[in-house]
Amino acid sequence: MEYITYEHNAEAADIISRYYDTPPLAYVHSYGCQQNVNDGERIKGVLVDIGYGLCDKPEDADLILFNTCAVREHAEQRVFGNVGALKGLKEKKPGLIIGLCGCMANQKHVVEKLRQSYPYVDLVFGVDGIDTLPGLIARKLEKHKRILLEPAQRPVIVENLPIRRESEFRAWLPIMYGCDNFCTYCIVPYVRGREKSRRPGDILAEFRGLIAAGYKEITLLGQNVNSYGKGLEESIDFADLLNLLCSVPGDYQIRFMTSHPKDASHKLIDTIAAQPHLCKHLHLPVQCGSDRLLARMNRHYTVEHYLELIEYARARVPGITFSSDIIVGFPGETEEDFQGTLDLVRKVGYMQLFTFIYSKREGTPAATYPDATTRQEKTDRMSRLLAVQDEIAMGLVRAQVGQTVRVLVEGYGRLEGTLSGRLDNNLTLEFPADASLMGQYVMVHLTDARATVLLGEWMP
Fold first, then answer.
1. Bridge partners, 63 (sequence order)
2. Per DSSP, what are the bridge partners of residue 453?
């Protein structure tokens, strides 16, 4: 593994400044997961570093860059639809640079489709190329030719990329990149590459900077944070890293995602129990409740193992809540398999579920599996799953009413004059208050619930 440090590209900045009469504007839109959102923040930081301003409307931009997701088919279709909608804008503004990066750009068939069917797309590069963006833009401006890079894995980690964070009190902090698990339905290892852990000193330095800048909530990111540390010279695992970060003084809380059950350990759960800075909530994607399908998905755990982790966490961390991901309609799923999923959901009692109907991804093993289940059957199963989960979640939310809790104010509520925030256990709360409380911790008495959203009164 090679670790390199981002350096300002003065030559590219000079070419850009000479090409435009006024500082150019960039529109950057990120699709998909939190890792993509954080990548988008770093893309914006690099663009500002070389002289771009940022804008909120594509029609105002000199550079439009879509930072893409490839996890589900719907996400790809949205991107192609939005890229197609730019054809008329490009005709009106021939000097406009249109680019696409991220996970979709690391798939050969996508790059070829862009090459053949979208001739007005000027720039394509993969997930590991954010630091190369200044040079690519400069080449495009000087040579007036399209630059569509072929998908390739780049075994480097680039530190000190400039960043334009979307929030002044919540921050994403990646601790690793890529994935080694190769779940049969998942495209991530093919587009983001194998696991690469950041050095703990680099993570700690960025974390200290966030706390010093007043950030209140930091979410650690990785495709599988529980396998952090593999390949590093230092002997360190994810629990060790959490303890290291929690040693930094300050008033803050730490969340993390995503945890793979096969690597979730009692040591990790003990750390959550011991460290006040760690939120008492665990996102532990199970995907389904059938051992047969879990093996077919290449998940490397059983329902029994998963439930043992849940029970250990309940015993060690009073009041802990759980969320999960579930795929409905994986190829070969039977009604018996689906009933196993419903049984698991009832046993765990998830506070939140993120549910998806299986989406075939070209290049993954599951894309070749026979699938006799109709779309209607899958949709019906999804409806039944959501009905079970809604009943569970609303009961758990209602049980919170009457408590007085500490909450980080994150945004505006749905009703005028209200603010919203998240509790330590990841539940959403809305309450009447002035916007001056934004980004602060406040005490709120929980008075009621509307579906899965808590309502409360601010306690000054």
1. 26, 97
2. 428, 450
Computed over every residue of the chain, the mean pLDDT equals 95
Is 197:229 a contact under the CB 8 Å cutoff? Answer: yes
pLDDT digits (tens, 9 = 90+) for 171-183: 999 999 999 999 9
> Regarding the domain delimited by 2-148, which CATH topology (the fold level of the hierarchy) does it fall under?
Rossmann fold (3.40.50)
The sign of the torsion formed by the CA atoms of 110, 115, 121, 127 equals positive
For the domain bounded by 287-399, which CATH number is listed?
3.30.750.200
Listed in sequence order, the residues at least 6 apart from 196 whose beta carbon sits closer than 8 Å to its beta carbon are 1, 155, 157, 176, 177, 178, 231
Pick the CATH number of 167-279 from 3.30.750.210, 3.40.50.1240, 3.20.20.370, 3.40.50.720: 3.30.750.210
pLDDT (tens digit, 9 = 90+) per residue, 119-166? 999 999 998 899 999 999 999 999 999 999 988 888 899 999 999 999
The residue type at 21: D
What CATH architecture applies to the domain 404-458? Beta Barrel (2.40)
Q: Which is nearest to 216 in space by CA: 35, 44, 421, 34?
A: 421
Residue position matching structure tokens 């043992």: 308
Q: The tokens of 438 are what?
A: 């934004």
For residue 218, the model assigns a pLDDT of 98
Give me the DSSP letters along 341-365: HHHHHHHHT-SEEEEEE----TTSG
Q: Give residue 452's Cα distance to chain centre.
A: 22
Q: What angle do CA 373, 374, 376 make, to 5 degrees?
A: 130
Contacts within 8 Å (CB) and 24+ apart, 250-253: 250/211, 251/216, 251/441, 252/211, 252/215, 252/216, 252/217, 252/218, 252/277, 253/216, 253/217, 253/218, 253/277, 253/278, 253/279, 253/408, 253/424
Q: What's the DSSP call for residue 369?
A: S
pLDDT of residue 151: 85
- Rounded-to-integer distance, Cα 52 and Cα 123, Å: 16
Residues whose CB falls within 8 Å of the CB of residue 52, separated by 6 or more in sequence, listed in order: 16, 23, 24, 25, 26, 62, 63
